[in-house]
Amino acid sequence: xxxxxxxxxxxxxxxxxxxxxxxxxxxxxxxxxxxxxxxxxxxxxxxxxxxxxxxxxxxxxxxxxxxxxxxxxxxxxxxxxxxxxxxxxxxxxxxxxxxxxxxxxxxxxxxxxxxxxxxxxxxxxxxxxxxxxxxxxxxxxxxxxxxxxxxxxxxxxxxxxxxxxxxxxxxxxxxxxxxxxxxxxxxxxxxxxxxxxxxxxxxxxxxxxxxxxxxxxxxxxxxxxxxxxxxxxxxxxxxxxxxxxxxxxxxxxxxxxxxxxxxxxxxxxxxxxxxxxxxxxxxxxxxxxxxxxxxxxxxxxxxxxxxxxxxxxxxxxxxxxxxxxxxxxxxxxxxxxxxxxxxxxxxxxxxxxxxxxxxxxxxxxxxxxxxxxxxxxxxxxxxxxxxxxxxxxxxxxxxxxxxxxxxxxxxxxxxxxxxxxxxxxxxxxxxxxxxxxxxxxxxxxxxxxxxxxxxxxxxxxxxxxxxxxxxxxxxxxxxxxxxxxxxxxxxxxxxxxxxxxxxxxxxxxxxxxxxxxxxxxxxxxxxxxxxxxxxxxxxxxxxxxxxxxxxxxxxxxxxxxxxxxxxxxxxxxxxxxxxxxxxxxxxxxxxxxxxxxxxxxxxxxxxxxxxxxxxxxxxxxxxxxxxxxxxxxxxxxxxxxxxxxxx
Length: 647
Known about the structure:
alpha+beta
């Protein structure tokens, strides 16, 4: 909403927290006496300024309050009681009641770091036990009107217990104090705007300015969430009757057989019954959009019931439906007529005029395309005598098409309430026909069906008594044939079923046999693989053991040979020593000389053999060679383990 009442409303899309304000119990009630006197100002802030506008004999008013936010206390003791700081606006009067705004700039006891604002009813002029219902809005005005945060409520104010209603979490303080967001002006003040509409009776329509503000907020939701689902339900219920040719023909015959006086008696309903049905189907105290949905229908009912229009006709066009409210004579007439596409300029066009000449297409429209509802002395009567169900379904389908057309073509920013007011007239007619159908037409039709069914039963009973023997024989014969046919059919079915079961059983057995064979083959292959693996492992193990035994045996033989060679070498040494002790000096010299030749690595085996033979033949003087060799160092003895033959 804008700050001034005469500016056009702008669309505001609520955030997720604001859209669920009712379900989260953010709208709460407060007492004026629950805070100590030391923590509240004794008078309104002198720096604040406020304006009040009112209309509709004072039942509707707007109050604008520009107030500076107090500074937060610096000491810790005061910060503990920061939720008790509150400010009051000037008292303003709407609908004969005094009101004021109560603001907690740092949040109340139910909130933290949020702005809390409540609308308080001042009961100093009221008697004890008073109560009053009111529509109200509390808005925090932004420099950009499209960002203004608006909250809507509908509550009963009574006494001191429920004297204040509002929102503990209206807006976050960090967001509010951010200068760039546009909530605080250059002087550090914020602007709060309260709209109050006092409701004097249950079905009272609201002020047109207030309705405009609701249109800016909830226009699309009213059409899509309330009107469209209701019309879909009604259309689905009627399709069950009209879509069945037998039921539809039965109702058409019933309606055609009724006398005109009986039709007039059925096609009437009180306005209070219609509005009670509207309130039950559309209104919810916790959903602000339902205020607007019910209000446009209440306004249409108010126009028809009280003749608020001047003498003549108030015409409007919504979608392809022409609506006219004609005042004068005995009551007020609400006329609905479906126009051809050529007659209506556009589905998205909605025009309103006041004239006494007939609307375009009046003479060309058929009886099933025109509905007239006359309201007189609080009773609405329908004057169309065509098939009621067809007319009712046609109007519901037209209303559903019009709702969808408005949602598609008319933007909420351009909605000033006129479109919804016209739609409210059509919805009033639909609710009236719905009440007539449920309360009067449907029970009468079922009563007629019950009577006709009773007459048919009596007639059938009489015919049965006259032809009982022949019919009994025929029935027995027919029954016998049917039993035979059934028995044969049952036998065939059982045979087919048995064959199918056998075939299925055979297939299952084959499949099981195949699976079993496959499993056995897999198991056999696995066992064969394991056996081969075990044999291979066993062979490898035996080969390793044999190799290990061979290595051990060779090592033992080698060690035995070495030990035997060592023993032989020792024995030979010992024998040589013993022989040397017994052999003559010349023989000993020969042996030493031969040993030196054998140890000489520079000689090849042939040379060694020739020299040894020469020594043994006595051709070499071993004594001279022995003396010469005595001065030389003997080569080291052969290593241990060398064979005796090599030595």
